[in-house]
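FW: tagging you since you asked about this chain on Friday. Here's the raw sequence from the shared folder, copied in full. Didn't touch anything.
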Amino acid sequence: MLIKSFSKMDFAITAELSEIEARALKAITDYGTDNFLRTFYNQFGRDALKPHEIGLIELFNTIRTEMPKHLDKIDDIREIWEKK
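HL: got it, structure written out here
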């Protein structure tokens, strides 16, 4: 009988963004991960960001999939508010 065990520790950080910060962050991700990385690496080199590339890809994917629905709600509420 073979029994394997492992430990895993995960941390999460919650950040609160204003609407303009959220829209700016979404705008950055709209250029695409590959384009962002290419430009970043060309301008600043690979040393600072390369160790975090997987995290950046996950972050961009999360922002592109999650942020629009929240910004759409804000737009919908603002539209209703302005019609009254």
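FW: Residues 19-83 form one domain.
HL: agreed, and The chain has a mean pLDDT of 93.
FW: great, closing this out.
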